[in-house]
Amino acid sequence: MLNRAQIRAARSWLDISQDELGQWSGVAKRTIIRIEQGASSGQERTLRDLQRAFEDRGIEFLFENGRGIGIKARTTLEAKPAVSVEN
């Protein structure tokens, strides 16, 4: 499942604010802040909405044994190497 480090990394990669991510995903900015700060792990639907918003903009999430381990840009958009976001 998507984790806070992946969310922060994807947001940084795209150079977008929490406000922009909220607009793209339909997730409240306060919820995004709480997830990124570790105050909440996020509900499954919330994480799915965030993931979809990023994937629509070319971000792929890397998982190993169900655990989020990094992000990368889709091949057609790839300008940077994959980023590891171990917690």
From TrEMBL:
<protein>
    <submittedName>
        <fullName>Helix-turn-helix transcriptional regulator</fullName>
    </submittedName>
</protein>
<dbReference type="InterPro" id="IPR001387">
    <property type="entry name" value="Cro/C1-type_HTH"/>
</dbReference>
<dbReference type="InterPro" id="IPR010982">
    <property type="entry name" value="Lambda_DNA-bd_dom_sf"/>
</dbReference>
<dbReference type="GO" id="GO:0003677">
    <property type="term" value="F:DNA binding"/>
</dbReference>
